[in-house]
Write a structure and sequence with these properties.
- By secondary structure, the protein is of the alpha/beta class.
- It has two domains: about 130 residues, 3-Layer(aba) Sandwich (Rossmann fold); about 70 residues.
- Helix content is about 35%, strand content about 25%.
- The protein has seven helices and nine strands.
- The strands form two sheets. It has a six-stranded mixed β-sheet, sandwiched between helices.
- Strand 6, helix 5 and strand 7 form a beta-alpha-beta unit.
- The longest helix is centred in the C-terminal third of the chain and has 19 residues.
- The protein is globular.
Length: about 250
């Protein structure tokens, strides 16, 4: 699905965000990018999305005909239109692509159902909790039925209970099949529970420090969070992260 070879990114002000990054992501994987602030995680995600371009190296996506309609992006903020209902916010990518309103709204209703928001189609963003607004943002990313889903710390600003619930919902959506997920996080615990691989990056300029497989039982249940296997995975990731920050 993704192949990066020697990817680097230097901004016009001279800041080098990434250097010599090699990474491959297979179709159907759930991969988390873990690292300290400023290691280029979000920059990498933007380049994968086509919102920015590397200044060195090559980046290939296995999306036939480019990324249009096959790639979904969930940002750190829900970024909903305050003047539009939940349904119209979720339908926005389809309307921009020229799909007729009835068809766009039908598919948006299905996307909202998948994220647990059936019954809230007519609600305004101001009437929703932070977790519900993020669910709308997730529905908006899923409405085009993408093959590749990019998420940039989407749950970082939420309370712990809401965050855990959304982790479970996201993992369930991935388990339905057809999705490749690239997820940016600062959380060792979140990355271990969600992923089947965690890529640990060094501080700026971001470089690959460790590529860690997560071999935990499926399905990932809430009880798994207190298991010996999960705790061992978190300890291993914490050690890699400490090494990366000291490198």
């Amino acid at each position: 699905m993704l192949r990066l070879r020697g990817v680097g990114k230097r901004f016009r002000n001279g800041t080098e965000a990434l250097a010599g990054l090699d990474l491959e992501v297979e179709a159907g994987e759930f991969v988390s990018l873990l690292g300290p602030s400023g290691c280029g995680k979000s920059t990498l995600l933007r380049m994968v999305a086509g919102l920015d371009a590397p200044t060195s190296g090559t980046l290939e996506r296995g999306l036939a005909g480019g990324a249009t309609g096959q790639l979904g992006f969930v940002f750190q903020d829900a970024t909903l239109m305050p003047w539009a209902t939940t349904l119209d916010n979720a339908a926005l990518p389809l309307r921009l692509a020229g799909l007729a309103a009835p068809n766009a709204r039908a598919r948006a209703r299905d996307a909202l159902r998948r994220v647990g928001l059936q019954g809230f189609e007519g609600a305004w963003p101001r009437e929703l909790s932070g977790g519900m607004r993020m669910r709308v943002s997730l529905a908006r990313a899923l409405v085009t039925e993408p093959r590749l889903l990019l998420l940039d710390e989407p749950f970082a600003a939420l309370d712990e209970i809401t965050r855990l619930r959304l982790n479970e919902d996201l993992r369930a959506l991935w388990a339905e099949g057809g999705l490749t997920v690239l997820f940016v996080t600062h959380s060792v615990f979140e990355s271990a529970w969600l992923s089947n691989r965690v890529v640990v990056l060094r501080p700026r300029p971001g470089r690959l420090h460790a590529d860690v497989p997560i071999a935990l039982p499926e399905p990932r249940t809430p009880e798994l969070r207190t298991s010996a296997g999960y705790n061992a995975a978190c300890r291993a990731l914490s050690a890699h992260l400490s090494e990366a920050m000291a490198a």
